[in-house]
Design brief:
With 355 residues, this protein is α/β, with parallel strands linked by helices. It has helices at 4-15, 21-31, 37-44, 48-60, 76-85, 109-118, 136-148, 167-173, 187-200, 235-247, 267-281, 305-309; strands at residues 64-66, 72-74, 156-160, 179-184, 205-209, 226-229, 255-260, 283-294, 322-330. The longest helix has 15 residues, at 267-281.
């Protein structure tokens, strides 16, 4: 029987993404807990191409098989392997009340109820801009987290290219920020926010259409205390969203919030992002809350690369796409990045799969 290292190398050849022994162990641990491919991705914290490659190799080697209901199961050979290697079933100790965030959305139940009522007719996420909406509970927990870290009250806040989650709207609904500016390429979202701001008389909030591949005008640089974003996870997109967010911050001590997932990026990519943050932009990472952001499976799932790569055709039945919530602070000497983005690979690369 092949070793885990050999299985990982074969999965790397098949998928074209970086995979190592620990990733194979994670899949073998997850499949003992659930046969659902999408839940296995969630538990193993892998990009879809990596998890798919590993599963296909394990099927090739007779370690897994797909049953009649399109669930993944260990063969006898597979049971013998996990027993021999001491790989135990996945264990989850996540707090069910706060879903592992440490911030329960119901801590401000009135804000949550108002948000739910106002967003009943929200625009749906579309594939054109790599959109995927988080749950309302996630959006409100984001706002409460920001407030708990002293980054909401009497702050000038800009939300960049992440308004499919309506985080900017939720921040404005608290009536606690000094000002809120929402920037997004999707005019549907901008019009939606501005309509609600006008109806509720929230005159310190505004939404504008902007493509973040284009530099900001000088008057937007250095004007805000906090930025919030949710970047697509290619390096060009990360620089466009996070680099421009940092460029809008007024001074050292300014703060940024954003999500990064292990569903579209590997830990190798996270290292690249973190090097860019600390070495290129000059910021410190103060918080990483794993699986903070829970995404509703998008309507266009069947059209994505993820659905194409999956070894099963069964659609996700539970929330499987999650991301970590990052908080960063800019340090003395931080760099404002405001260059033109012309890279053609903006939304998708070898590790990404959700567009």
């Amino acid at each position: 029987m092949k070793t885990l290292v050999e299985l990982a190398n074969r999965a790397r050849e098949l998928s074209g993404v970086r995979i190592y022994k620990r990733n194979v162990e994670a899949v073998l641990s997850a499949v003992q807990k659930s046969g659902d491919f999408w839940e296995i991705i969630d538990m193993s914290d892998l990009p879809v191409p990596a998890a798919s490659g590993i599963v296909k190799v394990l099927i090739e080697e007779g370690i897994l098989f797909i049953d009649d209901e399109e669930n993944l199961r260990l063969t006898q050979k597979g049971f013998d392997l996990v027993r021999e290697l001491g790989i135990e079933p996945f264990t989850d100790y996540t707090c069910k009340a706060c879903e592992g965030r440490g911030i329960p959305f119901y801590a401000d139940i009135e804000l949550y109820r108002e948000f739910i009522q106002l967003t009943k007719d929200r625009p749906k996420a579309i594939r054109d801009y790599d959109q995927g909406s988080v749950t309302p509970e996630t959006t409100i927990a984001r706002v409460l987290f920001i407030d708990s870290r002293g980054d909401l009250r009497n702050k000038d806040i800009i939300v960049l290219g992440a308004e499919d989650d309506l985080t900017g709207l939720a921040i404005a609904l608290t009536r606690k920020a000094r000002s809120v500016l929402v920037i997004d390429i999707d005019k549907r979202l901008i019009d939606f926010d501005n309509r609600i701001f006008k109806e509720l008389g929230i005159d310190n909030a505004e939404a504008r259409v902007w493509d973040l591949r284009n530099p900001f005008p000088q008057e937007m640089l250095g004007k805000f205390d906090v930025f919030v974003s949710d970047p697509p996870e290619t390096l060009p997109a990360f620089r466009a969203f996070i680099g421009r967010g940092i460029a809008t911050l007024r001074e050292e001590g300014g703060v940024g919030y954003f999500g990064l997932t292990l569903r579209d990026s590997s830990v190798f990519r996270w290292r690249d992002f973190q090097i860019a943050l600390t070495s290129e932009f000059g910021v410190a990472i103060t918080d990483i809350v794993q699986d903070f952001n829970h995404y509703i499976t998008w309507d266009y799932h069947k059209e994505t690369k993820a659905a194409e790569l999956a070894p099963v055709k069964k659609d996700p039945k539970t929330i499987w796409y999650k991301s970590a919530w990052y908080r960063v602070e800019v340090l003395p000497g931080f760099k404002r990045w405001n260059e033109v983005i012309s890279d053609n690979v903006f939304y998708l690369d070898e590790e990404g799969s959700t567009t």
